[in-house]
Design brief:
Layout lengths: L8 E2 L12 H5 L5 E2 L3 E3 L2 H4 L4 H8 L1 E8 L5 H11 L23 H6 L6 E10 L6 E10 L7 H10 L2 E7 L6 H12 L4 E6 L8 H11 L4 E3 L1 E4 L7 E4 L4 E6 L5 E5 L4 H21 L1 H8 L6 H13 L4 E5 L9 H10 L9 E4 L8 E3 L9 E10 L2 E10 L2 E2 L3 E4 L5 E3 L3 E5 L2 E4 L2 E2 L4 E5 L8 E3 L5 E3 L9 E7 L5 H13 L4 E4 L6 E5 L2 H15 L3 E3 L3 E2 L2 E3 L4 E9 L6 E11 L4 E5 L11 H12 L12 E9 L7 H16 L5 E14 L3 H9 L4 E8 L2 E9 L6 H8 L5 E11 L2 H18 L1
Bound molecules: guanosine-5'-triphosphate.
The site of guanosine-5'-triphosphate (GTP) has 25 residues, from helix 4.
Length: 758
């Protein structure tokens, strides 16, 4: 039995009994599971999965490759493409051949040797079943995601639409700060993962320490399903602990996989020890294996493989694979691991909301039947050589070329002019795409996160988690005003929800904000290269926010008499702090303010929220409740009520005890242990709160919460105090109240800019 990635009570969706299926399928006969707060989409009963659906889905995998920066994701994916026959030659990241990795298709990515955009690619992988000897061909969609925290939305996007993932770790560095972030994201979307400890060829490679870290730092039960044969330079293959055999790579770039049934004598005892450890770990999370171990029996290889699969898909366990991507060793067994242990699209619980039902109605579990009504999610937009490209995951039904599809958000219908399978920046035209698959369509106007249907249902998929921007930059055009400027900014905004643009009403400057300096720097550079727009940027500024701390009533009259018709609006109510965002509630009774003017009050409230009068930063976490007011038969208008709301808000804002919030970053520093006091000292001088400090094998890891405002220039300071041996990474944690002196300084600076304008 298979367990769905969203755990809960089993439902009767697995309709396998009526069809004959290949061995591999019947062994994994699936039971899809729903939670108590979901119901199955009504079409599931009308369109049960057919034997064809089962066959197709069983051999389909949608996986992501995620990790801390520089762990070797792109290098690994390049090997996967080579071994699956998608590319004829391997090109290295920052390779001497200057071609760059296939998946890093953007010029900037190749130059910098980092992945910026996640790329989707499709490949086939043929396996020989270790138990039955049966050959099976799997279709795998892979998304290579960036490791840099500034591009975190790309990781979010990918995980949203994937069924499983490979978490890549470095055999020397182990669990790093970004690994923890990726782990959190995988948990948020219930994505089961297998772990791949890469760089086994590096001096100091220690997979056992890394596995310990997965258990202790990520709090995930994990055990190796392989042990290495040879270490570091001598690393030449792995022992497969599940099927008890050894696996080596031979031929050009390790293309030939040589499987031997005997285990090298020098590692046999160790292999037995590690197989016992695997069993022990599984017994903790899997009942069937638990019972076998309790009875002092030995499970069959088949039972062991099935238990690993169950526990992995049940999010209780991560099987650990070992290898070296750069040395072309043990990548193919990892691919076998993807097909063996990661879920099929039928095993993922995918939820949608019926927009015709109340917001709090139970979510619907979609069914991956090819003949059910279409539901697909546009998860990524890209401006390609041939126009706008929209990446879509089809969850239910079939997407066909030339068919009409409906955007659930806008209600607009569009024709699908061209449908392709993506292979990084190359593509293959196809006529139709079934449920569980990922494709791209051309020429469809939409925003990232939009749901598409065939118009017969009113389903909408839930949206992604979008973090707040932490840094902003003022942009000034170098040359003359050009339409390309706004064109570029609009496109970037549509592509990337973490990239924001606004015009500062006082300075008249265009301000861009995002997740970090590199994030914004990339967009400025793309603007120059792709749109021929050169800009000068101001100094990066921390994205502060303001909020209020006290419930405060308002009563405000806006009255103006200028020649002809005047303006009149009176409103009363209160504002109060809330956790996040802005909220407007209309509690007016008896029509004291006619209905048509209420939207004006709401608009005015949100305009006022754009800029606080304390420090000039956006306001967050306020609810406005409108309770009373009055109007004038001739002089009232929506505009008058909008102006009244702005006036009311600004008048009482200071009485509501506003404060400034600043982004706090989770900073992780890694350095040789001898620099412990210097590193902790450096974080203390930057108002850091140390959350964790650990020394392991002579290496110090310190985790601290530090205001972003105090992080400028930290890399130089760290270099200086660790003789260049310290490294750090940071990610956004939360916006929190800043200290009084910083708030005072911001207030004064803002007053100065206002005075200069007078
Ligand atoms: N020794 C060793 N080096 C490796 C291995 N795999 C990758 N590398 C090197 O590690 C560096 C980073 O590799 P990438 O594949 O760019 O890593 P990435 O995780 O995709 O990096 P980002 O996309 O920037 O997050 C490159 O210099 C690779 O050559 C490996 O198995 N062994």
């Amino acid at each position: 039995m298979l367990i769905c990635k969203a755990l809960g009570r089993p439902s009767g969706l697995g309709q396998l009994s009526s069809c004959r299926l290949p061995n591999v399928l019947s062994r994994w006969a699936s039971t899809t599971v729903q939670t108590s707060s979901t119901v199955v989409a009504p079409e599931a009963a009308k369109h049960p999965l057919t034997p064809d659906d089962h066959r197709r889905l069983a051999f389909q995998r949608n996986i992501g490759v995620s990790a801390h920066i520089d762990s070797g994701k792109t290098t690994l994916t390049e090997r996967i493409l080579y071994y699956t026959g998608r590319i004829r030659e391997i090109h290295e990241v920052r390779g001497r051949d200057n071609v760059g990795a296939k998946m890093d298709s953007m010029e900037l990515e190749r130059e910098k040797g980092i992945t910026i955009q996640s790329a989707a690619t499709f490949c086939d992988w043929e396996t020989v079943d270790a138990i039955s000897g049966e050959k099976n061909k799997y279709a795998i969609n892979i998304i290579d995601t960036p490791g840099h925290v500034d591009f975190t939305i790309e990781v979010e996007r990918a995980l949203r639409v994937l069924d499983g993932a490979i978490l890549v770790l470095c055999a020397v560095s182990g669990v790093q700060s970004q690994t923890t972030t990726v782990d959190r994201q995988m948990r948020r979307y219930n994505v089961p993962r297998i772990s791949f400890i890469n760089k086994m060829d590096r001096p100091g490679a220690n997979p056992w320490r890394v596995i310990e870290q997965i258990r202790s730092k990520l709090r995930m039960s994990a055990a190796a399903v392989q042990i290495p044969i040879g270490a570091e330079d001598e690393f030449r293959g792995v022992v497969d602990l599940v099927h008890w055999r050894s696996i080596y790579n031979e031929g050009h770039k390790g293309i030939d996989v040589v499987i031997k049934n005997e285990i090298p004598a020098e590692v046999e005892a160790f292999a037995k020890e590690k197989r016992a450890e695997l069993l022990y770990q599984l017994a903790e999370v899997d009942e069937e294996i638990g019972e076998i171990v309790l009875m002092d029996e030995v499970p069959t290889n088949e039972q062991l493989a099935a238990a690993i699969r169950r526990a992995t898909i049940g999010l209780k366990f991560s099987p650990v694979f070992l290898g070296s991507a750069v040395k072309n060793t043990a990548v193919q067994p990892l691919l076998d691991g993807v097909t063996s242990y990661l879920p099929t699209p039928a095993e993922s619980l995918v939820l949608a909301h019926d927009t015709e039902q109340p917001v709090d109605a139970p979510q619907l579990a979609l069914t991956p039947a090819a003949n059910a009504p279409l539901v697909g999610l546009a998860f990524k937009l890209e401006e390609g050589r041939y126009g706008q490209l929209t990446y879509m995951r089809v969850y239910q039904g079939t997407l066909k070329k030339a068919n009409l599809i409906y955007n659930a958000r806008t209600g607009k219908k569009v024709k699908v002019p061209r449908l392709v399978r993506m292979h990084s920046n190359d593509m293959e035209d196809v006529e139709s795409i079934g449920p569980g698959e990922i494709c791209a369509i051309f020429g469809v106007e939409c925003s990232s996160g939009d749901t598409f249907t065939d118009g017969t249902t009113s389903y909408s998929m839930t949206s992604m988690f979008v973090p707040d921007p932490v840094i902003s930059l003022a942009l000034k055009l170098d040359g003359k005003e050009t339409p390309n400027f706004s064109k570029a900014l609009n496109r970037f905004k549509k592509e990337d929800p973490t990239f924001r643009v606004h015009l500062d009403s006082e300075s008249k400057e265009t301000i861009i904000s995002g997740m970090g300096e590199l994030h914004l720097e990339i967009y400025v550079e793309r603007m120059r290269r792709e749109y021929n727009v050169a800009c000068t940027t101001g100094k990066p500024k921390v994205a502060f926010k303001e909020t209020i701390t006290k419930r405060t009533p308002f009563a405000y009259t806006h009255k103006k008499q200028t020649g002809g018709s005047g303006q009149f609006a009176r409103i009363a109510g209160y504002i109060e702090p809330i956790e996040d965002g802005g909220e407007f509630l209309d509690h007016v009774v008896g029509g004291v303010i006619p209905e048509q003017y209420i939207p004006g009050v709401e608009k005015g409230f949100f305009i006022a929220m754009e800029k606080g009068t304390l420090s000039g930063n956006p306001i967050n976490g306020v609810r406005m409740v409108l309770e009373d007011g009055s109007y004038h038969a001739v002089d009232s208008s929506e505009l008058a009520f909008r102006t009244a709301a702005i006036g009311a808000f600004r008048e009482i804002y200071h009485s509501a005890k506003p404060i400034v919030l600043e982004p706090i970053m989770k900073v992780e520093v890694v350095a040789p242990a001898e620099f412990q006091s210097a590193v902790i000292g450096s974080l203390n001088t930057r108002r850091g709160t140390i959350a964790d400090s650990e020394v392991h094998d002579g290496e110090l890891t310190v985790v601290a919460d530090v205001p972003l405002n105090d992080m400028f220039g930290y890399s130089n300071q760290l270099r200086g105090c660790t003789q260049g041996k310290g490294e750090f990474s940071m990610e956004y944690k939360v916006h929190a109240p800043t200290i009084a002196p910083v708030q005072k300084q911001l207030e004064e600076e803002y007053k100065k800019t206002l005075n200069q304008k007078k």
